[in-house]
Design brief:
The protein is α+β, with helices and mostly antiparallel strands and 404 residues long. It folds into three domains: 169 residues, Alpha-Beta Plaits (2-Layer Sandwich); 53 residues, Orthogonal Bundle (DNA polymerase, domain 1); 159 residues, Dna Ligase, domain 1. 39% of the residues lie in helices and 22% in strands. The chain contains 14 helices and 13 strands. The strands form three sheets. A five-stranded mixed β-sheet has the order 5-6-1-7-8. Strands 9-12-10-11-13 form a five-stranded antiparallel β-sheet, with helices on one face. The chain has a three-stranded mixed β-sheet with strand order 3-2-4. Strand 5 and strand 6 form a beta hairpin. Helix 3 runs antiparallel to helix 5, helix 10 packs across helix 11 and helix 12 runs antiparallel to helix 13. It is globular, with a radius of gyration of 22 Å. The relative contact order is 0.10.
């Protein structure tokens, strides 16, 4: 007996940061709005749809965007406000299905296979989600519906803003071939240049290549591109509770030059990961740090804790220890910072000491209190202020293939 085909949704909020500001400030509605850095080296985080016809887009230097659209309203990023809205968004998504895989603060995959009895078919679920986002958040979202993750993400981007696009198996040979090859997951600017140089500009062009030829030209990525070009993707939606690791990372459009600025971002990432661990009922044995700097040099370091933990203080100590060691070796402006928790175990699966440590008990109570406040008033109502201390660990481990 064949199992029912998967029904995957990809929900992506429309111009998220700018839309929140336009929601909260009615005088901005209908105007071009740019959210991002307002200083000399500022970069656009989000351009409203009114600003996009002028050529404004995310990751563009703010000075360039201002020249393109002199009448745009420029606002600084309000991270706390946006994080609170994001948290409410994910509550709405998890009301529909526990199989929610966050991709960023404003997008996620949902596996709604088998939800028909409660919610109707996948398209009905998508419509209901869009309606709930509009009613609860006064914002719009675009949703893609498909039998796999790649097609669902592709679909959500085809009719923005406020779109709902369905790609079924029978649509693949019609929808994919005319699209630019950049639509394939994993084809960035550099890979696109190589593909263009080889005469490949559309997904249809790529389909004309044999898998061996693609593998010779692009290595292990070649077969991956061939599968995606035919709409094939076997990855499953992985919610936090079933993940092998829980992590968060952030790429900056312009390198951060102040170590304290990077550390502040890392602090927020640790708080988020720790709370997601507690929500998923998991503890981590290992804390990892990822840093990208210079000419796209990337390092990954990890610390193994003596006792698995979901405590914000312990995870933050480990992350700050790893970061401080890298800074001491010679700080360089940072393009990406990421923090992750791995070797996950359920409570009771970790080895415990004979007697509970008073500090650990106190920290756990503090985490519970902070979680309760955030559940009631929003994810950014309060946070920890911690100084880095040596982490209790079994040692630092470079990741495989990591340059020293």
């Amino acid at each position: 007996m064949r199992s029912a085909p998967r029904r995957i949704l990809h929900l992506d909020m429309d111009a998220f940061f700018a839309a929140i500001e336009q929601r909260d400030r009615p005088e901005l509605r209908g105007l071009p709005v740019l959210i991002g850095g307002t200083g000399r080296r500022g970069v656009v985080s989000t351009a409203s749809y009114e600003a996009r016809p002028f050529g404004c887009r995310s990751a563009m230097p703010m000075a360039v965007a201002r020249r393109l659209c002199p009448d745009a309203v420029v606002l600084p990023t309000d991270g706390r406000k946006y994080a609170a809205v994001s948290e409410r968004l994910f509550e709405l998504l998890r009301d529909v299905t526990p199989l929610v895989e966050p991709l960023s603060v404003d997008e996620a995959f949902l596996d709604v296979t088998g939800c028909e009895r409660l919610w109707g078919d996948a398209v009905s679920v998508a419509r209901k989600l869009k309606a709930r986002v509009r009613e609860d958040l006064q914002l719009t979202a675009s949703v893609g519906v498909a039998p796999n993750k790649f097609l669902a993400k592709l679909a959500s981007d085809l009719e923005k803003p406020d779109g709902l696009t369905v790609i079924e198996e029978e649509d693949i040979d019609r929808v994919l071939p005319p699209l630019p090859v950049e639509r394939l997951w994993g084809v960035g600017p550099r890979t696109a240049e190589r593909l263009h140089a080889a005469g490949v500009r559309t997904i249809g062009d790529l389909r004309a290549w044999s898998v061996p030829d693609l593998e010779r030209a692009f290595g292990s990525s070649g077969p991956h591109f061939a599968r995606l070009a035919r709409g094939q993707d076997t990855r499953v939606v992985v919610p936090d509770g079933r993940a092998k690791s829980i992590s968060q990372e952030r790429t900056f459009p312009v390198d951060l030059e102040d170590p304290e600025d990077v550390r502040d971002v890392l602090r927020g990432q640790v708080e988020d990961v720790a709370r997601r661990l507690r929500r998923a009922g998991l503890k981590a044995r290992t804390v990892g740090l990822k840093i990208r700097y210079g000419q796209f040099e990337t390092i990954s370091r990890s610390l193994t804790l003596r006792v698995a933990s979901d405590g914000t203080a312990e995870l933050m100590e480990a992350a700050f220890t790893l970061y401080a060691r890298w800074v001491r070796r010679g700080f360089q402006p940072v393009r990406l910072i990421g923090m992750g928790a791995s070797q996950l175990v359920e409570p009771g699966g970790e080895q415990l000491g004979l007697f509970p440590e008073p500090g650990r008990v106190r920290d756990a109570r503090l985490d519970q209190a902070l979680d309760a406040l955030k559940d009631r008033f929003g994810g950014t109502v309060i946070g920890r202020g911690l100084s880095p201390k040596p982490a209790r660990s079994d040692g630092e481990v470079p990741e495989p293939g990591d340059p020293d």
